Amino acid sequence: LYTREEVGQHRSPRDRVWVTHGTEVFDVTDFVELHPGGADKLLLAAGGALEPFWALYAVHNQPHVLELLREYKVGELDPKEAPPAPAAAQDPFARDPPRHPGLRVNSQKPFNAEPPAELLAERFLTPNELFFTRNHLPVPAVDPGSYRLRVEGPGGRSLSLSLAELRSRFPKHEVTATLQCAGNRRAEMSRIRPVKGLAWDIGAIGTARWGGARLRDVLLQAGFEAEREGEWHVCFEGLDADAGGAPYGASIPYGRAVSPAADVLLAYEMNGEELPRDHGFPLRVVVPGVVGARSVKWLQRVAVSPAESPSHWQQNDYKGFSPCVDWDTVDYSAAPAIQELPVQSAITHPRPGAAVPAGELTVKGYAWSGGGREVVVRVDVSLDGGRTWRVARLAGERPAPGRAWAWALWELQAPVTAGAELEIVCKAVDGSYNVQPDTVAPIWNLRGVLSNAWHRVRVTVGR
Fold first, then answer.
1. pLDDT tens-digit readout, 408-427
2. Tens digits of per-residue pLDDT, 281-310?
3. Which parts of 264-354 are beta strand (E)?
């Protein structure tokens, strides 16, 4: 038996790293360097209780995590020990905002959810309340009146802006852009082999009309040049932070940040309304054509730097690897951070396993490609698993060349006969003739990102 004071004496690898969970005591020294979130995150709990830190990441609630922890058990807390102070067990997610009941939740804490797939292609602009939510940490409560954005860089250049100043000093610019999570359609990869990450279906994508100041305008006002020689990046930090105070962060190349054609925004509006809390109120970055992980929410700091963001999510996540790479061989420093995403499409109607009536079948879906590459060539649809094909009708206006930031919705009508079993397949071809791969296995990766194989839906036709 141990007291909390005795556990508290083990706070470093030199003195051994002990933690508690419930009434149990664990020596996790040998696991510190193996911790998937980094040794520094585990050491935050050294000498104390795991619960306040585990509450930040839902993955810790899975049975295999507790089983792994119990391999390091060294004893129990003395029954005479008082329970930890209430503040230590306080729920960091207690102040999260209410959510739409129609969202399909992938994790509660942090909150991650997507809309029902059948609603995705019903409107070109995704309603704010049904836009997919990807949170890494608790949602911060921000006072718009006292909020300040800091813009910093080499040479001591800096700028501090209130929300009112952002609105009054910079022209409002609007961009209709699709944001997609790197893990969209991850569930399909997990059917090949297990992957690490949330089991997103096809709904971790959405389109909105974003309004705000151009990042370019703000950087130029802060004294940064329209062009810089060498490798430079623009780093973003959010107000959402982990238990140790480390904020969510990401970065994009400097050239994209200052390009007038890239339309990168510091957005304070979403579909004509102020940003919802789940989507970054009061200010977020929107980087059109780029993975959603770089569109940092609850933005507090913009920094021009010769190096990418040092954030965990830039350096040790959101990167793609060969199918042969596993957790024993992965080297995150060997792969570039995901920026532009590959061509993508999915079927939103009918849903897998549906029974559809005989006669004319309507198939609907979305298609999109990263980097502003327009899905102008076509979306091909097959009803027989890819043996024969039809071309779907694309809806919406043609965007400016190289600035196809928003998805295309597509639709196909085709006759189907009673009693048939259909395997509906779609594949998009973008303006550079990039096309989706036909199967998932060759693009499988241990994090389940960049999942863009042909989307397949099996249905039966009623008699």
1. 999 999 999 999 999 999 99
2. 999 999 999 999 999 999 999 999 999 999
3. 265-270, 273-274, 284-286, 299-305, 344-349
pTM attached to this predicted model: 0.84
For residues 380 and 134, give the distance between their C-alpha atoms in angstroms, rounded to a whole number: 30
Identify the active-site residue in 35, 104, 169, 393: 35
Is 426 assigned a catalytic role? no
191-246 pLDDT, tens digit per residue, is 999 999 999 999 999 999 999 999 999 999 999 999 999 999 999 999 999 888 99
The DSSP letter of residue 327 is T
CA dihedral for 44, 47, 49, 50, sign (positive or negative): positive
At which residue do the structure tokens 């509660």 appear? 108
Question: Which one of 173, 181, 186, 373 is the catalytic residue?
Answer: 181
CA 160 to the chain's CA centroid:
28
Q: Which of 21, 134, 277, 279 is catalytic?
A: 134
- In angstroms, the CA 84 to CA 60 distance is 20
**Residue 164 CA: distances (Å) to CA of 144, 148, 209, 281:** 9, 10, 21, 14
324 catalytic, yes or no? Answer: no
35 is catalytic: yes
Task: Out of 60, 100, 301, 458, pick the active-site residue.
Answer: 60
181 in active site: yes
Pick the closest to residue 212 from 282, 294, 269 (CA basis). 269
